[in-house]
Write a structure and sequence with these properties.
- The chain is an alpha/beta fold.
- The protein has a single domain (2-166, 256-365), classed as 3-Layer(bba) Sandwich (FAD/NAD(P)-binding domain).
- The chain has eleven helices and 17 strands.
- The strands form two sheets. Strands 3, 4, 5, 10, 11, 12, 13, 14 and 15 form a nine-stranded mixed sheet that branches. Strands 1, 2, 6, 7, 8, 9, 16 and 17 form an eight-stranded mixed sheet that branches.
Length: 375
């Protein structure tokens, strides 16, 4: 069975769904293939910078209807629990992926997107057209967007270089009920990693942390690692001892790669985490995924409508605009993570920020962008 569309999107996370809505709202025929059903919990910090609010409203997908938690302050603590805080320049909101992905999924369907739950096996480009195979179907499309996440089997099929490198990072996430200021996103350091804490809808606390697997594997389970390592930071010990987990067991993912990734591979335009992943300590991965969808979708529309006259021009413009928006952020995230994961360096940075708090906001701006306005 063969199906045809102007645009085929592989992956239905934030980037894939936002692009689907954008393109369908413009009258384009779009097929999105996603291996999972909705709603699903995902390992994610679940904080979004307000930089993408104008774009979500442009898509007629204002998340206000989900009653997200409003966030205006950032706190950072070192291994010993000493902390400093500042106001966030743009502010942001906390919303679970369980709620947001389902909401965007329904918006995409309402906009006319065909969504198929299947796993893409391979993508081939022949005679200026894509042929995409799943287990039992073949699809044809003029443009393919890759929005399939951090690491997927399709990365191997496309022979992307980063998948040949093992990554030392493991991420763990769960929802909790307990005491935490609603307007605060916190970043707590611990030996071998860092932990993000913020509230989402319904007064739920999202706790998501990144840890080096070599330090984690010394312990029998997640709970023991938390007690022996995370609890060395008094801020984390106090929070977790006074909170109750809402999951039966935490969610986890491994092999999280922060290596450079191609923005275009075999003519597939990569968006969201598929194009590049910022360190979670920057707390801005969700907004970057949505922002990238807006950048890419606007260019794809120009191409489909003849204002960009060649595929190579489309690809070059996308790479240029992606780099202009996100390359500095990702480099800044790598630099900051390298500092904060070294106890001595983190201690020096913390002392500087306590004495010169005005330096905090320029550091935040390095990993955040300006509000995304669509013409």
């Amino acid at each position: 069975m063969e199906l045809r569309a102007e645009v085929l999107i592989v992956g239905g996370g934030l980037a894939g769904l936002s692009s689907a809505i954008h393109l369908c709202n413009a009258g384009k025929q779009v097929i999105l293939i996603e291996k999972n059903t909705y709603p699903q919990h995902k390992v994610c910090g679940e904080y979004i910078s307000n930089e993408v609010l104008p774009y979500l409203r442009y898509l007629n997908a204002d998340p206000a209807v989900l009653f997200p938690n409003q966030i205006s302050r950032l706190q950072v603590s070192n291994l010993g629990g000493s902390s400093c805080e500042t106001n966030l320049p743009h502010g942001g909101f906390g919303i679970s992926r369980y709620k947001l992905d389902e909401y965007l999924y329904q918006k995409a369907i309402a906009a006319g997107c065909t969504i198929i739950h299947d796993r893409v096996k391979d993508v081939h480009f022949r005679q200026d057209e894509f042929e995409v195979h799943t287990s039992n179907r073949t699809f044809h499309a003029k443009v393919v967007l890759g929005a399939f996440g951090k690491r997927e089997q399709l990365d191997h099929a496309l022979n992307r270089p980063f998948v040949k490198q093992r990554s030392p990072w493991l991420a763990i996430k769960a929802h909790y009920k307990g005491p935490h200021p609603s307007d605060l996103v916190a970043l707590h350091n611990f030996q071998g990693g860092y932990c993000g804490v913020s509230k989402v809808e319904n007064d739920i606390i999202n706790i998501c942390y990144l840890v080096n697997y070599e330090s984690f594997k010394k312990f029998r389970n997640i709970r023991e690692h938390q007690q022996q390592v995370l609890y060395q930071n008094p801020q984390l010990e106090r929070l977790m001892e006074h909170s109750s987990m809402m999951y039966e067991t935490p969610l986890s993912i491994s092999q999280i790669a922060f290596d450079s990734k191609e923005k275009v591979k075999d003519h597939v335009l990569m968006i969201g985490d598929t194009a590049g992943l910022i360190h979670p300590l920057c707390g801005n991965g969700m907004s970057m995924a949505i922002h990238a969808a807006g950048v890419c979708s606007a260019l794809v529309l120009e191409y489909l409508e003849g204002r960009i006259t060649s595929r190579s021009a489309l690809e070059n413009q996308y790479v240029q605009q992606w780099n202009a928006q996100f390359r500095t952020r990702i480099q800044a995230g790598k630099l900051l993570s390298g500092i904060l994961l070294k106890p001595a360096a983190a201690e020096i940075v913390m002392k500087v920020l306590v004495n010169f708090p005005a330096l905090f906001k320029p550091m935040i701006r390095m990993t955040h962008g300006s509000p995304l306005q669509m013409r």
